[in-house]
Amino acid sequence: MPFTAIPTALPDVLILEPKVFGDERGFFFESFNDRDFRAVTGLDVSFVQDNHSRSQRGVLRGLHYQIQHPQGKLVRVSTGSVFDVVVDMRRSSPNFGKWVGVELSADNKRQLWVPPGYAHGFTVTSDMAEFLYKTTDYWHPEFECSLLWSDPTVGVDWPLQGEPKLAAKDAAGKLFAEAAAFA
Asked: What is 48-171's CATH number?
């Protein structure tokens, strides 16, 4: 298989570690192969959209999710590094409100599977990072929710130096107690 799936503290969230072929010329790896993704993860999902963002050190994006048209995301970093965070937003889950954080970087080439029902965000830990991700549903801005990145109930331990650089929608995110949640 071109990659292995590594479980996290949130059972549905998986780290995908690719098999990298390298020599003095550089490296090669398959960043996505539908057949192998399904075989290794056991997931039956289809991706409909690819996104690419570039951000500077200290930028924090998230924590985003869509209650209607929920998105699964397969995320990775092609340049630089980020601390990627996932929060379980499913009331029926024994892990409701729990989070996991993973370093994703161009060096480690890891990807993270973020299932529907989870809030997702990241902060850039290198001078600059390029962040790529596939989604299982389209972006619907009218249904997008933002969980406040600094919510004390969730208590994400972000590796920040000072205050993060935020978009207005992220600065105005809802506290966990007030945020929309999945059933």
From this structure: 2.60.120.10
